[in-house]
Amino acid sequence: MRPILINDITLRDGEQAPGVNFYPEEKCRIAEQLLKMNIPIIEAGFAIASDNDFDAIQMISKRFGHKSGPVICSMARATLRDIERAAESVRPAARGRVQVVLGTSDIHLKYKFKKTRNEIKDIAHKTVRYAKTLCADIEFAAEDATRSDIDFLTEVTQIAVAAGATTIELPDTVGYATPHEYAHLVQHIVDHMDPGITVATHCHNDLGLAVANTLFGIMAGASQAEVTINGIGERVGNASAEEVIMALKTRQDYFQIQLDINTKEIMKTSELVEELSAIKVANNKAIVGCNAFRHESGIHQDGLIKNKSTYQIMEPEDIGVKGYGLVLGKLSGRHALQDKIQSFGLTMNDQEFDRFYMAFKDVASKKKFLLEEDLLKLIKKHGYETIK
Ligand code: MN
């Protein structure tokens, strides 16, 4: 079994999601949750972007960047000023990292930089070498790697390594790659690197392939995966942390990857990021959507009562959710409701139950289905106390 490093980039790429702005204290709250999840690398922000972001990275470095804590990473474009600011922001961390980003695709060279390939090679060399004088741990990201000429990309990454980078990130910046293409790219770079160099995935979800591409990249030899909680990020976002983590864990038999993540904190982290980003998690989102462990059909409910493995591949408790949900509806009988009420540690006499059952039917008939929290609200409304 091979270990994999998870680099959570919610506080950097996640913040690039349209409409998201995390204040420094909010970033610290998210970082604290990531620590509870035992995330080994936290990319905390883009230092030169604003004083707020610089302060947030510095605060996280001070509060959480202790010796046995996570690596705290700060992003910089391949310019000296960006790099200085990034290095300064993570200086209080015992294990600070600067990530130097430089586009390598011809599209970026021609339209963004107006520079030749030789000029880009020179910039990679100079900026990484400079970064290395300010910070021991340097990650080099070849922006738009998946649309770059593979031989040129290989050359630039080798230059970055020679100048001191120890992690090479291969971003699918525009979410363009397919799983096999991405795996081929990762494998090619891994094959052209010293074995001590970490190759990292960074996949965007424009075609809905970010998680698949990340998993293919890992299978092809990447040993770091850059992911965000709830999959938030630039445009439609990045590979979702909880999906990558739970895929690797649930199918460890297949991936053969060793993960030391505390998955029990996933739901809490997801809820916090949902609240602070104001990006609502879809009901049918894998792992953290509210329907992830809810079963509605009678056939499935019957199977689950007999044995959970009939229709469930993960334990809800593994991500910090209490039990799977039974969906009660207007067709639910008195017995199902009675059972449910008893499971809340509540007893009602016949007369009380009759009255409550009528109220339940009334609410249920107006809704598509009734959730546990709806039922708990109704119970409370009727003046009963539950132990739940
Ligand atoms: Mn990105």
Write the layout of secondary structure elements.
Elements (H helix, E strand, L loop, with lengths): L1 E2 L1 E4 L15 H13 L4 E6 L4 H14 L6 E7 L2 H10 L6 E8 L2 H8 L3 H18 L2 E7 L6 H13 L4 E6 L6 H13 L6 E6 L6 H10 L4 E4 L13 H10 L1 H4 L1 E2 L7 H12 L16 E2 L2 H9 L18 E2 L7 H10 L6 H16 L6 H10 L7
Parallel strand pairs: 1-10, 2-3, 2-9, 3-4, 4-5, 5-6, 6-7, 7-8, 8-9, 11-12
Bound molecules: manganese (II) ion.
Manganese (II) ion binds next to loops.
Structure description:
The strands form 3 sheets. The chain has an 8-stranded parallel barrel, surrounded by 8 helices. It has a two-stranded parallel ribbon with strand order 1-10. Helix 2 packs parallel to helix 3 (80-89). The chain is elongated, with a radius of gyration of 24 Å. 42% of the residues are buried. Helices cover 44% and strands 14% of the residues. It folds into 2 domains: 2-277, Aldolase class I (TIM Barrel); 294-381, Recoverin, domain 1. With 388 residues, the protein is of the alpha/beta class. The chain has helices at 24-36, 51-64, 80-89, 106-113, 117-134, 150-162, 179-191, 210-219, 241-250, 252-255, 266-277, 298-306, 334-343, 350-365, 372-381; strands at residues 2-3, 5-8, 41-46, 71-77, 96-103, 137-143, 167-172, 198-203, 224-227, 257-258, 294-295, 325-326. The structure holds manganese (II) ion. The site of manganese (II) ion (MN) has 6 residues, from loops.
